UniProtKB/TrEMBL annotation, chain A:
This is 3-phenylpropionate/trans-cinnamate dioxygenase ferredoxin reductase subunit. Coiled coil: none annotated. SUPFAM superfamilies: FAD/NAD(P)-binding domain, FAD/NAD-linked reductases, dimerisation (C-terminal) domain. Residues 324-407 form the Reductase C-terminal domain.
From TrEMBL, chain B:
The lineage of its organism: Bacteria, Bacillati, Actinomycetota, Actinomycetes, Kitasatosporales. This is 2Fe-2S ferredoxin. SUPFAM superfamilies: 2Fe-2S ferredoxin-like. Gene3D superfamilies: 3.10.20.30. It comes from Streptomyces clavifer. It comes from the Bacteria. Its cofactor is [2Fe-2S] cluster. InterPro entries: 2Fe-2S_ferredoxin-like_sf (IPR036010), 2Fe-2S_ferredoxin-type (IPR001041), Adrenodoxin-like (IPR001055), Beta-grasp_dom_sf (IPR012675). Residues 2-106 form the 2Fe-2S ferredoxin-type domain. Keywords: 2Fe-2S, Iron, Iron-sulfur, Metal-binding. Belongs to the adrenodoxin/putidaredoxin family. PROSITE patterns: 2FE2S_FER_2.
Length: 426, 107
């Protein structure tokens, strides 16, 4: 068992899970987890939902209490980050000035929110949402009398914040530049249903509109959002959710290949065999997509963490996990299995209006993904089918009374997963 | 506080004291027990905290709701009549001595 020191740059889900997976595999060496968010690793999904309403507390958002790190002999450095990497000397330099030696370096540096490229974007009351501190700032502003909130961007973060704020009684406008919501991530059927729900809940949701400028009240606080065409919307709070940018500075300092993420191979290794990258910041060969992709999700971070830990322990395998995602907006529990972009056929099963349905997506007659609302069995079975491989056709799904629960269970996913995880040659 | 026993497919067991408020899932995560993933963090979304409650169990478990039942259709290892999502098993004194079996795989 290898015992050289491992430095993990980034203490989000990907970095944290890597450290844990190393220990549960019996890795004996020193593990240092370097993160810039003071409280330590967080479960981020509630930050745009339950944390804002108070139904999920800060303690519950923390992935583990401080005592866990001592028990597992994981050295957690918070409030710091990796500034640069010296590949020849096998050391990293932290922003604090500390220099750490590594045998393996894991880049789990995550992403940062894009900022709005318009005048007024730095006014007080204009927020983005990524970490616990951002969520706490937003939570405090959403606690109290009704506000006039403008959300810029109808992606997952924007729509979840809109739904949560609406639930708290605030006046909410969403401005999206694309002609539909979540255009990159969802089928038109699903994005239309989400938009209809937001409107039914009283959100003013504007599609195909861009923000031209933000104006202050004279005291430096945001007051008005001006759209293209000149429309002015009163706002005392603006949340910007227009996507994220991967944090690639350490990789660039090391001279590694970067292009919308740190480029890695199927074992999540960069071109330097001692440096790995994973999670939101990594651009990896996606077997389902057939090209290099970068995914932002808990599943991707968590599954890739196990893959990297295995490689560091000398038992590498190719990363092949089927991606999945989830979101909650009002009473709609949305789950996505696989990648639905690039589909040529969709079949909708269930009752979209009633808020319980699934959209099956096919490309060239093959199932590529399933989007479900309040049909968790469809989601789980779809994940299993996509992992094992399936000959499910659009014609079958279109048959009256079709129900995935009634399909005979094919090869267990565990066996299929093991088959897809054979070691790859060095 | 309840003593929970997690039995791995290879027969090894891990016994831990889990405090309330918490769940059988959280108890495994706090002790870094391999074999429970819980990627969704305990919101009954992902089915990666699947356990088989011991067949001889007589401790009172909360009834399964329809969401948990649906999620169990998607588990990596086949569900049976003893299957539960461990995130849906809150810790109480009444669960002291619970034995759960971990499946071969969670994803």
């Amino acid at each position: 068992m290898a015992a050289h020191p491992v430095v993990v740059a980034g203490a989000g889900q990907a970095g944290f899970d890597t450290a844990c997976a190393l220990r549960s595999r019996g890795f004996q060496g020193r593990i240092t987890l370097v993160g810039d968010e003071p409280p330590g690793p967080c479960h981020r999904p509630p930050l745009s939902k339950g944390y804002l309403t108070g139904s999920v507390t800060a303690d519950e958002v923390l992935l583990r209490p401080a005592s866990f790190f001592a028990e597992q002999d994981i050295e957690l450095l918070t409030g710091d980050r990796v500034a640069s990497v010296d590949r020849d000397r096998h050391t990293v330099l932290l922003e604090s000035g500390l220099r750490l030696p590594y045998g393996s370096l894991v880049l789990a540096t995550g992403c940062r929110p894009r900022t709005l490229p318009v005048p007024g974007a730095s006014l007080t009351g204009v927020l983005s949402l990524r970490g616990l501190a951002d969520a706490e700032d937003l939570r405090l502003r959403l606690t109290g009398p009704p506000r006039q909130l403008v959300v810029v961007g109808a992606g997952f973060i924007g729509l979840e914040v809109a739904a949560t704020a609406r639930g708290l009684g605030h006046e909410v406008t969403v401005v999206e530049a694309q002609p539909r919501a979540l255009a990159r991530a969802l089928t038109p059927v699903m994005s239309d249903r989400l938009v209809a729900e937001h409107r039914a809940q009283g959100v003013r949701l504007l599609l195909g509109r861009e923000v031209a400028a933000l104006h202050g009240d004279g005291g430096g606080r945001v007051h008005v959002v001006e759209l293209d065409g000149g429309e002015r919307i009163a706002a005392d709070l603006v949340v910007v959710g227009i996507g994220v940018l991967p944090n690639t500075a350490p990789a660039l300092s090391a001279g590694l290949l970067v292009g919308d993420g740190v480029v890695v191979d199927e074992r999540l290794r960069t071109e330097d065999p001692d440096i790995y990258a994973l999670g939101d910041c990594a651009r990896f060969p996606g077997p389902q997509a057939g090209r290099h992709i970068r995914l932002e999700s808990v599943q991707n971070a968590s599954d890739q963490a196990r893959c990297v830990a295995a490689a560091i322990c000398g038992e590498p395998y190719a990363y092949t996990s089927v991606p999945w995602f989830w979101s909650e907006q009002y009473a709609l529990r949305l789950q996505i299995a696989g990648l639905t972009a690039g589909h040529d056929t969709t079949v909708t099963v269930g009752d979209p209006e009633g808020g319980r349905f699934s959209v099956f997506c096919f490309r060239d007659g093959r199932l590529t993904g399933v989007e479900s609302v309040n049909r968790p069995a469809d989601h789980g079975i779809a994940r299993r089918l996509l992992t094992a491989g399936t000959d499910l056709t659009p014609a079958t799904v279109r048959q009256p009374g079709f129900d995935l629960k009634k399909l005979p269970r094919t090869a267990p996913r565990s066996a299929a997963a093991a088959g897809g995880r054979q070691s790859v040659p060095a | 506080m309840a003593k929970i026993t997690y039995k791995h497919p290879n027969g090894t067991v891990t016994v831990v004291d889990v405090r309330a408020p918490g769940t059988v899932m959280r108890g495994a995560k706090l002790n870094n027990i391999d074999g429970i993933e819980a990627q969704c963090g305990g919101s009954a979304q992902c089915g990666t905290c699947h356990v088989y409650v011991d067949e001889a169990n007589t401790l009172p478990l909360p009834a399964m709701d329809s969401v948990e039942d649906d999620v169990l259709y998607g588990t990596a290892c086949e569900r049976n009549e003893f299957s539960r999502l461990s995130c849906q098993l809150p810790i109480s004194e009444e669960l002291d001595g619970l034995l759960v079996h971990l499946p071969e795989a969670q994803s």
